[in-house]
Design goal:
The protein has 104 residues and is mainly alpha-helical. It folds into 2 domains: 59 residues, Pemi-like Protein 1, Chain: D (Ribbon); 44 residues, no CATH class. Helices cover 44% and strands 10% of the residues. A two-stranded antiparallel sheet has the order 1-2. The protein is extended and about 50 Å long. The mean pLDDT is 82.
Amino acid sequence: MLGEMLDEPRIDTHEFTIQVRQRGQLTIPQKLREALSIEAGDTLTILQIGDAFLATPRRLRSFELADKMASMMEEAGLTLADLLEDLPKIREEIYNERYGTQNS
């Protein structure tokens, strides 16, 4: 049930390789700047996630996304308890997909 909700919409992903210059400067590839409408002087938000970071030309929309998720749950007739009930099963499925069958 949750897996079906998270499958839509699919997010287009592209990989770009960039080099960090001497003073920590990065050059964003032109194709990416054009796709995201990033122009000279724009400010990006960078969020560190463990050993990685996410750069976005817009402020993170945590509250908007939380509201959207709540609306999707309401439309599907799901509660937080429903999601938490399925969590162990979903974790096991992800584990098995990544590492093979889980030994219990």
